[in-house]
Amino acid sequence: MENLVIIRGGGDLATGTIHKLHRCGFPVIVLEAQYPGAIRRRVAFSEAVYDGVSEVEGVTCSLADSAEHALEIIEAGHTAMMVDESCHILQSLRPWALVDGIMAKRNTGTSKDMADKTIAIGPGFTAGKDVDLVIETMRGHDLGRIIENGTASKDTEVPGLIEGFASERVIHAAFTGTLRNTVLIGDLVTKGQTIAIISNGNGRHPVEAEITGVLRGNIRDGYSVQKGLKIADIDPRESERKNCFSISDKARCIAGAVLEGLLILKKRDGY
After folding, report:
1. What is the CATH architecture of 5-154+249-269?
2. How far is the C-alpha of 58 from the C-alpha of 247, rounded, in Å?
3. Nearest to 260 by CA among 129, 124, 147
4. Of 65, 94, 188, 261, which has the highest C-beta tally within 10 A?
């Protein structure tokens, strides 16, 4: 299939790229893990792994059980999702380009020989060695910068500052166990409110909001979480509830950079 792009990862940042490339006419196959753990699930195509289909801002991504099925979905005008963490699809399909959008902060196996054009989003990759181009994901002046030689900025593990809140916005599991949500994405929550419960052999452990605001995202109900895993995100701006259901400014910026990068590589290669 002409100009076929395979994208590793279907979380909210990768979804911005998938959405843009699809709207620009590129056929897209998304490869995901068996149990994706997206937080901003309402704007993450990775939810198609669980539900069979995910729709974000008018674009539909449907789960396929084979490469042939994925191509049928694309022919029908949609994007396709496959559970294929190890990229087995490359044994039967040679994509025009491959984009690593896993956002693991490290390289989980992407290499330049996977496609004629390769791009990685975020830290963990060296442009010119692991992939052709790397996209900067650090908020600030360089967000979306296309790196042709070198690496993106290292992950600071500190969330973006919103109205004076940074680390307080993001909630991590204090226990290992099975998570059950008690609120929904988009709900207004107050500081100290129980937003989820983690159950394990030692009992039921409430997860409390550390600030008052809008629940921007939470990990899927019933997910088996490990201690320290990010499980929820709160936006202190109560007026920004609508943002829970739309692609973020950061994801759109990165998506534009990926599109530009693909066109740069197309010009380089002459096709």
Report:
1. 3-Layer(aba) Sandwich (3.40)
2. 11
3. 147
4. 261
For residues 83 and 34, give the distance between their C-alpha atoms in angstroms, rounded to a whole number.
6
Token pair listed for 243: 């943002």
User: Quick one: CA dihedral 68, 24, 135, 51, positive or negative?
Assistant: negative
Residues of the chain with CATH 3.40.50: 5-154+249-269
pLDDT digits (tens, 9 = 90+) for 121-179: 999 999 999 999 999 999 999 999 999 999 999 987 767 767 777 788 999 999 999 99
Give how far Cα 240 sits from Cα of 46, 53, 72, 193, 237, Å. Answer: 23, 26, 38, 20, 6
- Going by C-beta distance under 8 Å and a sequence separation of 6 or more, which residues neighbour residue 7? 14, 17, 18, 21, 28, 29, 30, 31, 98, 99, 101
Single-letter residue type at 134 = V
Quickly list H helices, the chain. Answer: 12-23, 48-51, 67-75, 249-269
Say what the pLDDT of residue 159 is.
75
CATH number corresponding to 167-236: 2.40.50.100
Task: Report CA 45 to chain centroid distance, whole Å.
Answer: 8
pTM: 0.95
Give CATH 2.40.50.100 domain extents, the chain. Answer: 167-236
